[in-house]
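Revision sheet: structure tokens.
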Amino acid sequence: MLGKLLKYDLKASYRYLLVCYCVYIALTVGFVLSVKGVDTASGVPGMVLAFTFLSLTILWGGSLIALVILTYVLVIRRFYVNLVRDEGYLTLTLPVSTRMHMLSKLLSGVFFIVLTGIVIAAGLAIVAAGLGGANVWEELAQALRSFFETFESFYGTLFFVNGVLNFIRGILLIYFSICVGQMFAKHKIWGAIGAYLGLLIVLELFVFIGSLVFGLYGGVNALVRWMYSGSTWLNTIYIIAQILIYFFLGAWILEKRANLE
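Predicted:
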């Protein structure tokens, strides 16, 4: 059943992102050509070249930022519309557990965000290759080799794992905040925003208070490494604990306490 849910969630959003990806790549190519045109064009008024270059630069930079924002908006919107708006009445009556719905939304959200990152990286590679020549690909290959070499170290591998877990935690924190927002009789969106900001503040206070305690008894460096280094098992446990809380408590709220619109 998870496969069917995931297929449905992917189909619901991919068309919008596919159009955005095409626009971004087209603007990327146009930006590269405009830069080359400024250097090589002859017989074209400088004002026209400058206007074209400036316009495409702004459009390309704006499309890059907009693509990131739009991806997150679509991921959040999919969760919000399908589970806590009118569709939620139908969705939550399906013979599927709420946890399965949460997992499907999480996997589809991770997929789209990662895919957007790949598309953006491809665009940047096009720009770098178009402006820098063949050396760019050699530098990229060297960067990839350096990246994979980090896995030869235990701490390098753990740092990567914690980075992936942090990424998942960030998405689940948004989902969980939306679930908490549904417990409000009115102003559910503001409740979700307040829950999200409140959780961020509470987590930072936890780190701060823990730092003071460890500073008195074990040295502040111990907790700093735990929370921020990303290369310790304590950091991994801390992140996984949050992931489990956001996932299971969020699913429970949707199932038992949510006040659907």
